Amino acid sequence: MIFGDTETTGLLQPEANELRNQPYITEIYLVKLELNKRNGEFTFIDELETFVRPPIPISEEITKITGITDAMLMDAPSFAQIYPKLCEFFLGETTFVAHNCSFDTGMLWCELARLEKEFKFPWPSDQQCTVELSMPLENKRLSLAKLHEKAFGAPHENAHRAKNDVMAMVRCYSWLVQSGVI
C-alpha cells in the first residue's frame, strides 16, 4: 500500500474552473509499506520524495503554511519530469492512503490532466482517506494534527510538509488498525 501527501500552491477550485486555475503540486512524498493486519505494524518497501517546480510563484500565505519558497523549488523537476517515476512507483499497487485523499488524488488528477495523462496513470483501485476512516472517533472530520493528538496525546511535528504529514498519518493509520477502528 502507498501512503502519500502533496503540498501545493493552493486549494483545489470547483471542477467548473479551468485547469489553468487549479493549484500546482510543490512537494510530494510517497511511501510504500506492507501492513501486518494482525498487529498494525508496517514493513518499509520504498519511498519517493521530491519538490516539484510549479509554473507559478509561491504565495506568501503558502510559504507561511508550508515553509516552501520559490528558491527551494528553483532547481526542482517539473511534474512532467517526475511523471515516469510516479507511474513506476504506483504500478501494481492496489491501495493508496492519504489523510484527505480526495484532495491529494485531485491534485494528482490536475497535474496529470495538464499532461493529458490522467487516463494513462496506474491509479490504485482502493483509495482510503484517514479523515473518513477516523470519523467514528468523534463523529466529525479530524485534521491530521487532531487525529495524531487523539492517538498519541500530542500533535505531530513540522506539519504541512509532505514527508512529516505522511509519517504522522502512517502512525495514525497503524493506531486505527490496532484500536479496531479499521
Structure description:
The protein has 182 residues and is α/β, with parallel strands linked by helices. It has a single domain, classed as Ribonuclease H-like superfamily/Ribonuclease H (Nucleotidyltransferase, domain 5). Helix content is 39%, strand content 21%. It is built from 8 helices and 5 strands; from the N terminus they run βββαααβαβαααα. The protein has a 5-stranded mixed β-sheet with strand order 3-2-1-4-5, with helices on both faces. Strand 4, helix 4 and strand 5 form a beta-alpha-beta unit. The longest helix is centred in the last third of the chain and has 17 residues. The protein starts with a strand and ends with a helix.
Concise structural overview:
This protein has a single domain, classed as Ribonuclease H-like superfamily/Ribonuclease H (Nucleotidyltransferase, domain 5, 2-Layer Sandwich). It has 8 helices and 5 strands, in the order βββαααβαβαααα.
- The name of the CATH superfamily reads Ribonuclease H-like superfamily/Ribonuclease H
Sequence stretches where pLDDT stays below 50 over 5 or more residues:
none
Rg, rounded, reads: 16 Å
Count of spatially separate domains: 1
The total count of strands amounts to 5
Strand fraction equals 15-25%
Tertiary shape: globular
The tally of helices reads 8
Instruction: Report on the biggest sheet.
Output: 5 strands, mixed
Q: How are helices and strands ordered from N to C?
A: EEEHHHEHEHHHH
Q: Would you give the CATH topology?
A: Nucleotidyltransferase, domain 5
Class by helix and strand content? alpha/beta
Give the helix proportion (percent range): 25-40%
Strand order within the widest beta sheet: 3-2-1-4-5
State the CATH architecture.
2-Layer Sandwich
Distance between the termini: 15 Å
